[in-house]
Design a protein that fits this description.
single chain, alpha+beta, L-fuculose-1-phosphate Aldolase, 7 helices
């Protein structure tokens, strides 16, 4: 009897390991290593630059018209690595992954469904988040070229329909009680937009 139970247990473990290997192989095929490396580098830079907080930040990239890759729930930008990503469906279908999806994955879906975005970054820069919590926007007079550089900015309450509608017309959205959401079509722009918004908010605060 004990031998039988041990055999069943080993078979179950083998099945789980086999499924995990399939998921890893699928991820490696759909998400090129260079793309994952780029996302990890951006995450580390955001962490080192003070744009992210603990386990709250999220980063994603479009991989096909219907799918995108995103870091999993409760993964830290500071220590992000290859095993922290999952593949998600733009249409909201269930994703068969071992890891839990990011807390605000719906916002990423809104971006990919309604814009030509290839990258999305959700973060919590100190001053930008402060402006979001006060429902304020940085003022153009304090950084004249910022609005054009960012691609438009607005501030909204954290209601899904408001976030969705704002994303369509702005590349940067301040969300009360949450932080900053930015999107871009070029990997070189995604972190830069967040940095511009944060500096813009700093200068606006100092100038008010």
């Amino acid at each position: 009897m004990l031998n039988y139970l041990a055999k069943i247990s080993n078979q179950a473990v083998s099945l789980v390991n086999s499924q995990q290997k399939v998921e890893v192989k699928t991820r490696d095929i759909l998400v090129p290593r260079l793309l994952r490396k780029s996302l990890i580098e951006i995450a580390h830079q955001a962490s080192n630059g003070g744009l992210s907080v603990g386990l709250l930040e999220e980063i994603s990239a479009r991989i096909t018209d219907e799918r995108f890759v995103i870091n999993a729930l409760n993964t830290s930008f500071k220590f992000l690595d290859d095993d922290d990503f999952i593949i998600a469906d733009v249409q909201g279908l269930n994703v068969n992954e071992e890891l839990q999806p990011a807390r605000h994955m719906l916002w990423h879906r809104f971006v990919y469904k309604n814009t030509p975005a290839k990258y999305v970054l959700y973060c919590q820069p100190r001053y930008a988040t402060g402006f979001a919590n006060q429902m304020l926007l940085p003022q153009a007079q304090f950084l004249a070229d910022a609005a054009d550089s960012v691609g438009g900015i607005t501030c909204v309450l954290p209601e899904d329909n408001l976030v969705r509608d704002s994303i369509i017309h702005h590349h940067a959205v301040l969300i009360k009680g949450h932080g900053l959401l930015v999107w871009a079509e070029d990997v070189k722009q995604i972190l830069a937009r967040a940095e511009v918004v944060e500096r813009w908010c700093v200068l606006s605060r100092d100038g008010m």
